[in-house]
Request: fold
Amino acid sequence: MSESGLQIVSADGAFGGYLSLPKDGAGGPGMIIAQEIFGVNAFLRDIADGMADHGFVTFVPDLFWRIEPGIELTDKTETEWKRAFELFNLFNVYKGIDDIQDSITALRGHPQCNGKVGVMGFCLGGLLATLTAARTDVDAAISYYGVGQENKLDEIKGITTPLLMHIAEEDSYVDKDAQAQIKAAVADNPHITVHSYPGREHAFARFGGEHFHEQDAHLAAKRGFDFLKTHILTEETA
Reply:
C-alpha cells in the first residue's frame, strides 16, 4: 500500500515525500530512500514500493524542498539533466542529513514501524546514506555509487554504524583514484562492507537508465537484502 506522503517538521519548516507501507497493516523496520539528483521520481517510488513489499515502512523524503518542493525529473532529456545539476549545486548536504534524521525519527514513531530504521541512497543519495551512517542514529545504511565520498574520508573512516557500499568501477563521476582512496580508508573498519562491480558505470542499478545492468543490479539488491536481514530485519519480516 502506498501513500502520497508524510509531513516532517524540521527546524527550518515542514517537508513531505513519498510513503509506502507494508500490506495489510503489517509491521516492520523503517527505510529511508535518499534521492538522486532527480528528486522524488518514479524510479524512487518503485524502489519504495518494492521495499514495502518486503515489509519495510518506506519513506522517500523530498530533500530538495528548500530549493523547490516537489521536484520530479527523469534522466531522459538534456533539459532535465541541466536542471538536476543546478539542483545538485544548490543543495546543502548537511541540511539534507538533518532532514534525513528528522525522517528517521518520524518513521520510528509510525505505528507500523518496529523502531529499527535503515537508509539506502543512490548517487547523491549514496553520499547522503554514507554520511547518515556517520552523523545520525540510523541503524544501518546502504550506499550506491555515492558521489564525493572521497572528500569526506576523515569522517567516513570512523563510522560505527553498519554500512554497505556499492562501488561501480567504471563510474564517470567517481574516478579510479577516488575509488582507491575510499577503499583504503575503510579497509580496516569492521562496520563497513564494500562491494565493487567491474565494468559497471554510475547508476548501474537505475532501472531503465542508460547504464542499467540487470545482473549486477540484482546482485547488489540481494547483497543489500542480506545485509538488512543481518542488521534490522526480524525473522517475522524477513
Observations:
- Strands lie at 2-3, 8-10, 13-15, 17-20, 28-34, 57-61, 113-122, 140-144, 163-168, 192-197.
- The longest strand covers residues 113-122.
